[in-house]
Model the fold of this input.
Amino acid sequence: MPQPILRTDRLLLVPLADRHLELEVELDSDPEVLRYIWGRARSRDEVVESHAQRMALAGRVDGLGFWMAFGCDGGARASTAPPAEDEGEFIGLMMLPPAHGPDQPDDPTVTDLGYRILRRHWRKGLASEASRALLRHAFDTVGQRRVIAQTMAVNTGSRGVMEAVGLRYVRTYFPHWDEPLPGADLGEVEYEMTREMWEAGRAPAEG
Ligand SMILES: CC(C)(COP(=O)(O)OP(=O)(O)OC[C@H]1O[C@@H](n2cnc3c(N)ncnc32)[C@H](O)[C@@H]1OP(=O)(O)O)[C@@H](O)C(=O)NCCC(=O)NCCS
Done:
């Protein structure tokens, strides 16, 4: 199963492809966007490397991977139709790869939700809207058992998204960093949504 194009009321989520590289470069050129991730903007070469890693990760588990979010006028929830020539205004990068970090189990039924939005689009509910679509995709289409999300404890915006979409706090942990970012002393947090939580939260009308 290839990654589908997903739609929400305001967003078109298009599977990450090589043609999106310059948009990834633009996203990572803002140090404020990367404040809790790299602590600085990233060079084009660094983004080229990340892009290759993302494309490789997306090949590991059918249906999982990375999506570029574009503004749209809404429509059906999912489609296999190819994207239009003009994909719309770029909003950000949504992530749903298999869990793969050193602190994560190597389990193809666990996926790792993440998001990175252009600063001019913050605080409009867009990361939450896209995350809900990815949760639906993870549980209802791919059949994942658990979705986790991790961030620095001090990343209030990221935790706000996790809480807004119904993930629950699991743990705080303290990885070793060679060059810790400000706030690293407060650790990293992990949140989760299990299949049971997802099914319990679904409205009866949705089946
Ligand atoms: C984190 C990020 C994706 C949030 O995107 P967003 O589209 O602004 O988030 P939303 O508008 O969906 O907000 C979701 C919730 O978090 C809260 N929130 C978002 N940003 C916040 C902030 N900076 N401070 C406090 N709360 C915040 C919102 O109020 C909202 O809660 P509500 O539903 O109760 O109102 C965005 O700030 C970003 O791209 N940050 C840089 C990249 C990053 O840190 N990614 C996470 C790395 S793990």
